[in-house]
Amino acid sequence: MQNLQLYKVAVIILVVISCSAPAEKILDLEKAGTDFNAGKFFKDKIEQTNKTIATPPSSMSKKEALKKLDENFFAKDTLCYYTSEAFDGRYIDSKSDYSNRNKKHEGVYGYTYRTISWNKNDSLAVLKGIYFQTLNMFETAKGELVSVRATNESYSDSNHTKIISYLKKKYGTAKKLSKDNEAEVLQWQANDMTIQLKTTIENVEEVLSIDMDGKKEVKKETEYTIEYYKFTNKYLKDLKTVKIGRWYLDSDD
Q1: What is the CA radius of gyration of the chain?
Q2: pLDDT of residue 209
């Protein structure tokens, strides 16, 4: 009888494990609140990147090697406190930065997780059906979310229009932070977090072919790059002292 009970318990455990939700592969940016676990989200991604980097190319076939090149690559960095008169006192910077290698840090502030290799077909984050190819996240040492940055590249202004319409409907009229001759920067307040959006428009050319006379067949398109930022308001002063990466666009104070 005892063995039967143990068997039942084992079966229940297996069922629970098999029914557990798999780790998120695509982040819904609306769910990125102050309690979002960035470390957990990026854990498998960082491990896969390290595994790929550690694999000798000679151990793979050409086909396997080319497939590896299509993978996303991610990096984790540790940010620490430092003090310098050059930066008016205390600041936050990467522990691995070359200029800090001989400096003694004054404690760990937190960690950043960055997308360092991607292509336009990647999808790491989503907002109202619009997918973003890159995703960077910043958390404190205690695991509280500091900031998120996601980018979307496309050849249509529809993504830009849809996102602005959605954010306006949910959070109201945006505050414009743009300066003269700069790309538009819009800002919304979302409870204890701030959302910022910037869209850069650029005309790009792709050379399709070149004939014997040197004449080029060129494809011209308009590229739209959307930068989405979301940061925790209480950490804005800290973000102003971070010396690596871009984690917010602008602020009034």
Answers
A1: 23
A2: 66
Residues 99 and 119: their CA atoms lie apart, in Å, by 31
- 187-227 pLDDT, tens per residue? 999 989 999 999 998 887 676 667 666 666 667 888 889 99
Q: How many CA atoms lie within 13 A of 251 on its CB side?
A: 19
* Pair 134, 118: CB distance under 8 Å: yes
Residue 213 to residue 24: CA distance in whole angstroms: 52
**Residue-wise pLDDT tens digits, 1-10:** 444 343 333 3
Rounded to whole angstroms, the Cα distance separating 68 from 58 reads 13
Residue found by looking up tokens 């308009």 in the block: 222
Burial of 225 (0-12, 13-18, 19+ CB in 10 A): middle
